[in-house]
Amino acid sequence: MALFIDILTIQLIAMGVSFLTFAYGLIKTFLVHSTVQDYRNAIRPQYIPQLLLGVLMSITGFYGMLVWPLPSSYNILFYDLYAVLGLGIIGIALSIKNEYKLEHLGFMGLLFGLVTIYYGIQGYLHNMTAEPSALLVLYTLTGLAAVFFYPVSIFLDNGKWSKIWLIVDAVLLILAGLLAGYIGLEAVGEHLSAFAKWSPFI
């Protein structure tokens, strides 16, 4: 058997945990009623968890892009944007830690969010995965969360625009995170059985 490592389970779980953790941070920040600096201080504890998860996502995403461990074009559908997601999360974590402006990352998130939705639509139209509807919903929710991070970034930078964007984005992250986590955890048992006799040697 050739070398084959399917890491989609941990990738989905890491994605879900990252989204839920960041949603928690946004909600905590929403509850602050003070200055922009206080909002930035409230979101700063997200630095370490998002950095760790972002690094994991980037490494496994680039692995998938370079090695193509999955059959057929699933590598394009699953890994093209996963490495970008990891890098984006690292960028957010470093910006929060060092008090850099988030607006440009937010704009980048908006653009990649639209691209993510497009990937989901294409995956659905090509009937990829056993549950193409779940794929479409996951990509759409993730894409919308990235799109609406743009107004969140504006708010965290200077207090402009409405504070309600924190909750809007948190809700999208929670829905996407729960779905990603559910899909990942549901696949654990199947992967344990499928890889029970797997060997990394030819």
Please tag this protein with its features.
202 residues, mainly alpha, 9 helices, 77% helix
How is this fold's topology laid out?
Blueprint: H1 8-30, H2 36-43, H3 47-67, H4 74-79, H5 82-98, H6 103-125, H7 132-147, H8 149-158, H9 164-194
Shape: elongated
The beta-strand count equals 0
Q: How many helices does DSSP assign?
A: 9
The succession of helices and strands, N to C, reads: HHHHHHHHH
- Main pleated-sheet profile: none
Strand proportion, as a percent range, falls in under 5%
Low-confidence stretches: none
The radius of gyration is 18 Å
Helix content bin: over 70%
Structural class: mainly alpha
Average pLDDT number: 93
Distance between the termini: 5 Å
Written overview of the protein:
The model has no long low-confidence stretch (mean pLDDT 93). The chain is elongated and about 55 Å long. The chain has helices at residues 8-30, 36-43, 47-67, 74-79, 82-98, 103-125, 132-147, 149-158, 164-194. It is 77% helix and 0% strand. The protein contains 9 helices and no strands. With 202 residues, the protein is mostly helical.
